[in-house]
Design brief:
With 164 residues, the chain is of the alpha+beta class. It is built from five helices and twelve strands. The relative contact order is 0.15. The mean pLDDT is 91.
């Protein structure tokens, strides 16, 4: 039995926001200090480049990945013309930042949804371990051992932005 209808989800605000998966509300792990720090630092670096990329960087924005599936990535980068209350075209990039309560099985479901929807790259950042995974349709999930996030001419060294 579904938690709520699609229409009820779209007309509701949750604090923190929840995802909507086939009629069921899914709570997101809101994180803690390192999660928020990483979200702000990576978001700021992406934000600085958005004019050059003709893009917008959004935090915790609802993305409709299928008719009855709405994900809420920690960060996403969209084309400026795609800006709306609900993102309905694939973002250029989605970023998920791990919280201590996150599990790979749940995260893998999100990654699979993003890839099926057409998102080219998903970054998964573990701020506690200072690790970064790159997820793509062609390459699967790869640990990036140098800890450098690279995308469209932008480089972010995790060691420089994550707290000690």
């Amino acid at each position: 039995m579904p938690d709520v209808s699609r229409e009820e989800y779209l007309s509701s605000n949750y604090k923190p926001d929840r995802e909507y998966i086939d009629g069921n509300l899914v709570e997101r792990n809101a994180g803690y200090g390192p999660h928020g720090h990483a979200q702000m630092a990576v978001g700021a670096a992406l934000h600085r480049e958005q004019n050059r990329l003709s893009a917008s960087t959004l935090m915790s924005q609802r993305v409709q990945v299928a008719e009855t599936r709405f994900r809420v990535p920690d960060l996403c980068v969209i084309r400026k013309e795609d800006f709306s209350r609900i993102i309905q075209r694939p973002p250029l990039l989605c970023v998920e930042i791990l919280s201590p309560d996150d599990r790979w099985s749940g995260l893998q479901d999100s990654i699979d949804d993003y890839l099926r929807f057409g998102v080219a790259e998903i970054w998964v950042i573990d701020p506690k371990e200072a690790k970064f995974w790159l997820c793509t349709r062609d390459g699967g999930v790869r640990l990036m051992s140098d800890g450098v996030l690279r995308w469209n001419g932008l480089s972010i060294d995790l060691r420089e932005i994550l707290p000690e």
